[in-house]
Please model this.
Amino acid sequence: MLSSPFITRPLSVDRIMLRVLYALVPGIALYVWYFGPAILVSIALAVTAALATEALMLKLRDRPLRPFLSDYSALLTGCLIALSIPPLAPWWLPVIGSAFAIAVAKHLYGGLGSNPFNPAMIGYAVLIISFPHEMTHWLSPQGVGQSVLSLGQQLHYIFTSALPAGMQLDALTMSTPLDTLKTQLHLGMTVSDIRDLPIYGRLAGKGSEMVAAGFALGGLYLLVARIIPWQLPLAFLGTLFALSGVFNLIDPTHYAPPLFHWFSGAAMIGAFFILTDPITSPTTARGRIIFGIGAGLLTFLIRTYGGFPDGVAFATILMNMCVPLIDTWTQPRIFGKKKEDKR
Amino acid sequence: MITALWIMVALAALLGMILGYASIRFRVEGNPLAEKIDAVLPQTQCGQCGYPGCKPYADAIAKGEADINLCPPGGEEGIHKLAELLGVEFKPFGENAQPKPKAVAFIDEQTCIGCTLCIQACPVDAIAGAAKQMHTIIASECTGCELCVPPCPVDCISMLPIEEQLTNWKWRYPVYALRQTS
Amino acid sequence: MIRLHRFHGGIHPPTHKAESTRTPIMSAPLPAQLTIPFRQHAGEAAKPVVQVGERVLKGQLIGEPVGAISSSIHAPTSGTITAIDLQQIAHPSALPDLCATLVPDGLDEWGVRQTLSYRQLSSDELQKHLRRSGIVGLGGAVFPSDMKLRHPIVVDTLVINGAECEPYITCDDMLMRERAEAIVRGIEILRHALGTDAVLIGIEDNKPQAISAMQRAVDDSSHPFKVIAVPTVYPGGSAKHLIKVLTGVEVPSGKLPTDVGVQCYNVATAYAVHRAVEHGETLVSRVVTVTGNVEQPRNYEALIGTPFSDLVALSIPKADTNRYIMGGPMMGVELPAVNVPLVKASNCVIAASDALFPPPPAAMPCIRCTRCAQVCPVELQPQDLYWFAQSHNFGKAQEYDLFDCIECGACAYVCPSSIPLVQYYRYAKSEIRARDHEKRAADLARERHEFRQFRIEREKQEKAERLAQKERAAAAAKAAAEAAAAIPTPLEPNADAEDTQQMRIDAALARAKEQAATAHPRNTEALTPEQRAEIEAIEVRRAHIHSLAADAGADDEPPKNSQGN
Ligand code: SF4
Ligand code: SF4
Ligand code: SF4
Ligand code: SF4
Model:
């Protein structure tokens, strides 16, 4: 016999995930606009790999395929991985990343709802540690690189790693604005000198700043639609802004301004799409603020002092580890109980 | 290399001393382990474990003389609790010690001759009655140990399984058949 | 105007109240047969006081309260009791319970109706009257209303609950629209008994007609009651939450509203109080909504014990109806069969079909989205509770305040993974209760076992002592005789004097015991079978009383063991 309640109004898991996917659309569109359609190929590869791995793992774990394949969570993981690696990467890069994310980071920990770490970020971390070389060849935004590949040539490269005769990979790609900033600072240049380089736009990297803005737009939609809690992006972006602002005020020649931090790298997609993964973030309001602050702090530290170009992924993973603790600490007061009564 | 070895040895010795001191300094009086075990046992007092009651069995476990899988009334859950308490592996019941559904004794008062033999057998004084009177089980106090059944000379005691009633009904663990909703 | 407060969370399910409020309350016809359960209230079930075959009058007592928290059961109409046995009732377990079956004689003849003038009544007398009249909370919790007047501390605010927050249910709404005056009179009786000044009547603002009817009745009565429209939000009708909204006071967890000086009654209860006091009518009928998948959703005034099937038939269920729900869709229970009887707790019956209430999709894993926590009115963390309950981690669940959950179902309503959260909580709660019960039984058994051990030991010692004393006494007597023979002196040695005294006491005790043993056994041979049967019945009842006493946790041991040794 069924137990009450007999009526429900669920915004089901698949519809939640679908909305998150919709929210990625503006960012992806701008990505295509500025960097060409290679990213779409990359997304297709990553998503296919993610779904295939999901199906395989479900089979192995003897779980029903249909409800879990149609919840779009694997799809989202694939998308996020494709968006965090260079688009002009050999085909196996997104495939390995997605497969690892789904098989190890998700299913070996118990599948949907039980994974302590954000699968996409684990996939990314594995790739950047295992294939640092491939992971740094980012496409130049259109109009910056010396030469441009046609879609056919890009596809050819992705699947065979062969470039058309007479073209150099280095001529097509560049490292990310964040990476460039770090290397050039090491070489003794000042922030303002570096930002005069052709790859930089008004706020951050040319093109990539607009992509970030696209993600922010999608994120705002998610906030308004109450798909994601507001505490996480606010605390994360706020912390990043405040820290970089303070450092920038103290020494503008060596520390990039806050908006640069906001609009470069994975800050925006991280704030709205990665940190906000409900499974791997805290469940209490105060916990989310702590989580966001921690992630912002770690991101800034890794970006400024760490050895990797961006810090969002590692910051996320590190904070994921603290979630159970944060949750336990921040249990809210319940109706009719004073805080002190608790435990 | 040698230094590292020495450091390890010294560390081990130090920790050993601390542990030794702690075990003397914080020793607890009495035998709380037996009491803790006794608290986990179901107190049916049936003797099926081979000991004359729950406390003696608890003592035996505490001394390491008895296995943890000998008490059928405690059920598998009881073994789990004991295993957790003692930090040992779970052990399933043996062949001849299987838990039965809970029951209470019932005296057929038509047949009872008032011999008081069952009263003497009952470990928890759950039978009311005097010599040559009919005896009655106080159901709420009967532990279902069955000890009163064999002594009865006219075989008038039977064990009635406790049936599910409104007062002891429990909500079930939600199990939903996967239904196709097209 | 009074300032209203808010509580955390809550949901806004579609109310579906309009359907059943289009027609006035209709009196349901007398059914062919009534089944009246003896357990219709929180606490101990009532004890039958009528015989099978007896003719009863409407309102006559047929079940009397047992113990402190209990209430009376009455015959809903005049007729003949044809059976007192186990019958299926409206309970999710589908288990039967003790019921009286009454075949009406069609006269609907009232028995004695004792009316009272409440102004002359003390709170105590009113409590007795309510208990005799079987008045219980009609909002759904069916807690005996007399218990709620038994207040050790001062109650300064009386809250009257007309919120009726659950979808579909409209019985209170219709009652307020049509019988506001009687409700206000009932409220005045309760207010008088509680001795409070402030009376706040909270009604959700989706019932404008009820609000204006009540306001008019209050104005006419010139009592200083306040009718307050509260925002419509589920579960705003939960007593503790309505109190919070109206007064801003949070009833502490595990405490009663009286602990913060507030008492809360449902409007239907106030109406029943009025009928009981000023008309002498015991609680034999109530207003119930029949709605959902029926042609004519409406409210009926029906006798307690009316089979739901009769009521549903009056409203004509649609063809695809496949189950019935007693109560609202958020907290109700599915009826095990549609012919189970209406009870005091039944405020609504909903005919359901798969189209109306689609079966939930298969549950997915929890994604920790905390939508449940956002709507939980108790500010619990339902996702954590679920996690603990489904992994049988009951200790943790309790630590996370499982028992503060009011099972409102708001969490399950919004869960994107369609997890039957409330059922997990109910499962965990009943497991924990069963375990507590077992633990208590084990502790009792241990205690009794230890006591028995001690008693056997003591008896052994006493026996040994008695033997020793007898020997000593014999020796003393011999010595005394010798001494008397030798020196004729009346003085006895001191030590021996004590011994003999002890001996005499022992002898007296033994004699008394012997007497007790011989006096008690009944002459069971020379009795007629009827007498024997009667004695047996008495014995059974006595045993039952003993077990009850033991259940009630009486520390003093009732004399269960009168065996002569
Ligand atoms: S088997 Fe019987 S006597 Fe032994 S511990 Fe279990 S309940 Fe107690
Ligand atoms: S009445 Fe019988 S079964 Fe029950 S506790 Fe006593 S001896 Fe055991
Ligand atoms: S059912 Fe319990 S946990 Fe769920 S919302 Fe209601 S009070 Fe909170
Ligand atoms: S609403 Fe459901 S899925 Fe979301 S956290 Fe609560 S239980 Fe989990």
Notes: Chain C touches chain A through 64 residues (CB under 8 Å). The first strand of chain C starts at residue 26 and ends at 27. Residues 489-493, 515-526, 552-565 of chain C have pLDDT under 50 and may be disordered. The radius of gyration of chain C is 31 Å.
